[in-house]
Amino acid sequence: MRDCIYGINKEVPLLDGRLVRYVNLDNAASTPPLVRVVDGINKLAPYYSSVHRGTGFKSRLCTEAYDRAHKIIAEFVGADLSTNTVIFVKNATEAINKLAHRLKASGDHVVITTSMEHHSNDLPWRYNYRTVHVRTTRDGRFDEGHFDSLLEEHKGKIAIVALTGASNVTGYIQPIHHLAEKVHKVGAKIMIDAAQLAPHRKIDIRPDDDPGHLDFIAIAGHKMYAPYGTGALIGPRSEFMDSAPDYCGGGTVRVVTTEEVYWADLPERDEAGSPNVMGAVAMAIAAETLMEKGMDSIAEHERELTAYALEKLGSMNGVTVYGETDPSRASEKVGVIPFNLDDTDHALVASIAGYEGGIGVRNGCFCAHPYVVSLRNLPEEDIAFRRKHCIAGDRTYMPGMVRMSFGCYSNREDVDRLIEILEMIRVKGYKGTYSQIPETGEFLPENYKDDFTDYWKYPASL
């Protein structure tokens, strides 16, 4: 898969002036583009035109490419387009917000989600419904017993159950079809935030009449090696046909008079304005490539690499890994590993890894504040102190972790590079002097400034 990744061997400058091959261990945030995706976009670009209702050759070509993209994404998740629809949006966050606004349920209904969710699968529900959260266990796993009690307590009044397919913090994979069966038994529907799951595991929506059917799925191209600004919401056509779209305008209608509006069919009615044709095509190319390479093969490679990384971290002094630490259980999670060096701020670790190792990792709370705070198991007075400063605009005390996350192309050398840097940090062998910026919480090396002119300049300045 390394040959499939665009820019895989690009070198970046270090604090000491050396150039090294960049190691991207921040794939849970965004993945790099596939070579096929970049080539496909470049091939289509000379023919780019507005889609639908255009009679010119370029318009007809782009319409075919855009419409075909819907079918490929449906195939990627196994959706039957006779009863389901694929709606392109800009990312999974927008997909979930769209569903939160379009869901047909009364205000006295509740949404059941979990305390391990990304904010994108929590906040949209909070601002539209009363939301209750399934607890997690001490090691961050989904508490199924509590989930069962919430299903029973709110039976008949559940707007939707919204669950992550795989955590972007610990990587835990949920038994989504098993949970869907429980949800359907109480007459409710389930939505899976599959943004983190889609690039790592095969997704099967299952037939509509299957007890384990997934009613709604949200995915994001930027986590599937297609970072061109497109995501998708997949769900039953009936959920969107009986109400006006949340965004109205060009492309969403059949007929408009000064008194009446007749909405278009799906997906057009929910894809207002000129669509992101390039983004949709990019996402479809990425989905085709992942299917061709085989999601089971990708999963097995990831299992082996995750186990290797857990072994390496487990053998280091001063490292705390959150969530699953047993290499033999690596198949129960996607390749996401959060950790801390006991006596070093998570933001400083990430900064040194970038400036002195040429390694991209992520630090902080990963848009999942309640989950990270729970995993850190901090005293309540400590949490209150940190929260007070953050609210005041001082992120110096922001609790967090460092996260390494793999793509299908990651390898053992990438892991070894990070382990080497972590050992250097542990023994205080790094070269730079770093100062923390209170407003952001990040650490920057003193007397150093990035020079990006050899890497990117706006055309006007060329």
The amount of beta strand, in percent, is 15-25%
Overall geometry comes to globular
Strand order of the largest sheet: 4-10-9-8-7-5-6
Mean pLDDT: 96
Q: Assign the CATH architecture of the largest domain.
A: 3-Layer(aba) Sandwich
Total beta strands: 19
| CATH fold description of the largest domain | Aspartate Aminotransferase, domain 2
- Number of structural domains: 2
Summarize the structure.
By secondary structure, this protein is an alpha/beta fold. The protein contains 13 helices and 19 strands. Helices cover 33% and strands 17% of the residues.
Task: Describe the protein.
The chain folds into 2 domains: 2-28 and 294-445, Aspartate Aminotransferase, domain 1 (Alpha-Beta Complex); 37-292, 3-Layer(aba) Sandwich (Aspartate Aminotransferase, domain 2). 33% of the residues lie in helices and 17% in strands. The chain has helices spanning 35-44, 57-77, 92-102, 123-126, 144-153, 176-185, 238-241, 277-293, 295-314, 346-357, 369-376, 380-391, 412-426, and strands spanning 11-13, 19-21, 23-24, 84-89, 110-114, 130-134, 158-164, 190-193, 216-220, 231-236, 253-256, 261-263, 319-321, 336-341, 359-360, 362-364, 401-405, 434-436, 443-445. It is globular and about 70 Å long. It is built from 13 helices and 19 strands. It is of the alpha/beta class. The model has no long low-confidence stretch (mean pLDDT 96). Strands 4-10-9-8-7-5-6 form a 7-stranded mixed beta sheet, with helices on both faces. Strands 13-14-17-16 form a 4-stranded antiparallel beta sheet, covered by helices on one side. A two-stranded antiparallel ribbon has the order 1-2.
